[in-house]
Amino acid sequence: MRKRARKTSPAKLYVKGKRTRAAIVSQALRIASGEGLPALTIGRLATELRMSKSGLFAHFRSKEALELATVERASDLFADNVLFFAEGDYEGLEALWNLCDRWLEHIEKAVFRGGYFFTGAFFECVRQHGPVPDRITQTVQVWFEALKNAVGQAHKHWEIRLNVNPRRTAFELNGLLLGAYWAHLMGDRGALEDARSAVLGHLQKLVTKEIPVEAFESVRAFRKYLRERHA
Amino acid sequence: MRKRARKTSPAKLYVKGKRTRAAIVSQALRIASGEGLPALTIGRLATELRMSKSGLFAHFRSKEALELATVERASDLFADNVLFFAEGDYEGLEALWNLCDRWLEHIEKAVFRGGYFFTGAFFECVRQHGPVPDRITQTVQVWFEALKNAVGQAHKHWEIRLNVNPRRTAFELNGLLLGAYWAHLMGDRGALEDARSAVLGHLQKLVTKEIPVEAFESVRAFRKYLRERHA
Predict the structure, then answer these.
(1) Cβ B203 vs Cβ B96: under 8 Å
(2) What is the pTM of this model?
(3) Rounded distance, CA B70 to CA B35, Å?
(4) Cα R_g (chain B), whole angstroms
(5) Does residue A178 sit at the B interface (CB-CB below 8 Å)?
(6) Are B107 and B156 in the same domain?
(7) Mutate which of B63, B64, B100, B124 to disrupt the A interface (most A C-beta within 10 Å)?
(8) pLDDT, position B18
(9) A144–B186 CB contact, under 8 Å
(10) How confident is the model at residue A3 (pLDDT cuts 50, 70, 90)?
């Protein structure tokens, strides 16, 4: 009878591999969100994780594969923190508000360490082609579509007037958020909270008479109005 | 008597060195403005310029020196194309308009190949420290100050009402431009021209009664008004 070699079971190895891979992507995301994807090198990542370069290569066969996994993780985070709040029970005007509100919150909470995902990344990558820049642009496109669709739903629910253009509204709201983010990074402390009021002011100009005027008195009043609609 | 060696004169060598250096920075700027500064490597630059790595190193002792020279060139271009039009003869309201107008024009003219300088770059670098990110943030700061100062001058010339906050106005106008740039990159063809009208509409809300209402009828009318003031 052959003596059985004492070795880790394949299942355990698999789990360990998944965990290591997740740890690598975490660190990669930390670097990329602070300094941009091109700042991500296998060498640097290996040093910071105290792994060998070849150990890293066992998980990611190329820099591109690593970059893609990093963008994928960033997209998931963005979806969880922002896009998710325009799905399922959230529709129309509420979804539109949620998108803007949660977008500002994901800056406040510093979900990403720096301004790269997906703002700097978009401006950096939009003129480039390839799997990584395409994936970045795609995430930004999904965000834009979410804003646009929410306006379309709000038309159906008769919350926003039919003469309001979804595309134009999406651009205007996004512009508002982007400007606030820039101001915030330039040290304007009230920029993000001011942006919430500005978004609310903008929405007020678009809604039908179905939405009570009192809802627009303050951000707080608007949140209360949305909660009560659900109850 | 020693025979004089036939060699290129120091002056000629100096000129040649300057020219090579300028060519290197040009190519570096092309790469960085399209793909971001971190995408700039000595190896890639050497290949694209058909130079040896050591030849490149003779001009730039480090990657940082090369990056700094590239940002410097980008800053000069930005100053020539945008900031210059808020200096000298251009003051107050006219300077403020020029800054926005020329900023939009530098996008239209694609002064930089991609969206990196100084939009993507700012979002990417603002949380970093070091000579290169500091220089990028500084350029953006100069742009912000130029907007702010123009409002301050417009106060002095009684063109903009004194209760208009320069800092706030600078943020709002910059937000407008940034939003338009984003929309333009997302394929909104009219975004930049619409932004000009939006800037004009914004300025109209700020001015004193010294500025005739007719000036705000269109971008064309406003330009005519400015020309006639100079005459």
Answers:
(1) yes
(2) 0.92
(3) 13
(4) 22
(5) yes
(6) yes
(7) B124
(8) 83
(9) yes
(10) low
pLDDT band, residue B11 (cuts 50/70/90): confident
pLDDT score of B190 more than 60: yes
- Quick one: A81 and A41 in the same domain? no
| Residue A42 with chain B: CB contacts under 8 Å | none
Tokens in use for A50? 């105290």
A214 neighbors A201 (Cβ within 8 angstroms)? no
Q: What's the mean pLDDT in B103-132?
A: 94
Torsion of CA A150, A155, A159, A161, to 10 degrees: 120
Structure tokens at B134: 């500091």
The shortest CB-CB distance from A115 to any of B127, B172, B186 is to B127
ipTM for the predicted complex: 0.91
Residue numbers of the domain that contains B112: 70-230
Q: How far apart are CA B219 and CA B163, in angstroms?
A: 25
B197 shares contact with chain A (CB less than 8 Å) = no
How far is A118 from A71, CA to CA, in rounded Å? 9
Q: CATH number of the domain at A181, please.
A: 1.10.357.10
CATH code, A37: 1.10.10.60
- Integer CA distances (angstroms), B151 to B86, B124, B196, B214, B220, in order: 11, 28, 18, 21, 22
Helices and strands of chain A, counted as H and E runs? 10, 0
* Residue B48 in tokens: 């694209």
A183 found inside a domain: yes
Between A and B, how many residue pairs show a Cβ–Cβ distance under 8 A? 124
Question: Per-residue pLDDT tens for B17-73?
Answer: 888 999 999 999 999 999 999 889 899 999 999 999 999 988 998 999 999 999 999
Whether A5 has a pLDDT exceeding 70, the answer reads: no
Q: Rounded CA gap, B170 and B147, in Å?
A: 5
The pLDDT of residue A64 is above 70: yes
Please state, as a whole number, how many other Cβ atoms lie within 10 Å of the Cβ of residue B77. Answer: 16
Structure tokens at B169: 């106005």
